[in-house]
Design goal:
This is Grasp-with-spasm system SPASM domain peptide maturase. Helix content is 23%, strand content 23%. It has an eight-stranded mixed β-sheet, with helices on one face.
Amino acid sequence: MNGLFLRNQLCIPIKGYNRAIIYDINRKDYYFIANEHYTVLNTNNFINFNKIRDDNEREELIDFLLKEEIIFKVSAKDNKNRFTPLKRGLATPNLLTNAIVHANINPIFFNFIETEYIQNLSIIAPSINDDLLKVLEKIDALEIDNVYLYIENFDNERFEKVRQQLGIYNLVFSVNFFGCNNTIDKNKLYNNIYFNFFEQQFSDYKQHFTIDNLVVNSDHFLESYNYHSYYFGKVCIDENGNIKNGLNNIENFGNLNTISKADFFNIISSDTFSELGKINKNNTLVCSDCEFRYMCIDSRVPAKGAEKWYHQVECSYNPYLSKWKHEDGYINLRESGVAVTESGIAIEKKKLAEKFKKVWSII
């Protein structure tokens, strides 16, 4: 198929160790492609499909890309002006965009942020109790896009009453219950509120990243491309009022109950507090080889290595085998021949190739 082809600028190819992904950030979807095809598509100019020598492979790829509107065929070279390259920078006018709090939080926190624009507020509570309802009433007039509730203990007998109670709060976007019976539907929608039910305990949920945590949209992509998608613009206030970067962090930077508003903003604007938020996945061992790196929400605490950041706790996805932990054939990094330490990453390529062939049954 001859012609002039340009890539939809909202469909972005990202290369991984074994395969690449096209992020469709407008339609919130993604497509796997070969790394060889990534090399062809990763251009803002006209696409040279002649780099693919096999005629059938080339035609099949073009047909697929046209069908999904990932590429467009144009009639003349000057049509290129209609396809303006996506600017991948991120303007960050707000110091604080995401907050995680507990239902027993000192209400002074909401006085601190009353002039701030918060995209997402997550509230953790043992149950739908008076503390939580008081918080929801307190924040009703604040400039918050979405409120996510994380309820540690599910009470099936009270669910109908709880559902009705929460229906009056317009900011609540989703309610996540933990420790649920496996017979309960995983998702329900009532009055524009998503109710999600998890068998696992919240203490386990907050530690582990899964395929369900992948997010594909323009805002998340641009944040992940420039910063750390979990730590950037985030503050976490634990049940004792300690100010932290995130749920799994040990270090605290002060206590909400003993500081002023000025002190609070001095803390979250400090270089020490904001350091984790400025980490890019390309500067993180293993993550830099992962095709999902700009769509994940990874709450693991990064550690600073000799040249790059790294994680002491493994992710649930092994990008060197292209396998998730819940999938058949998954093995961890060490067993795959990949060693990650403070000093860097070492890959036993022969061992990795053998494990990959075994996992994917390539003879």
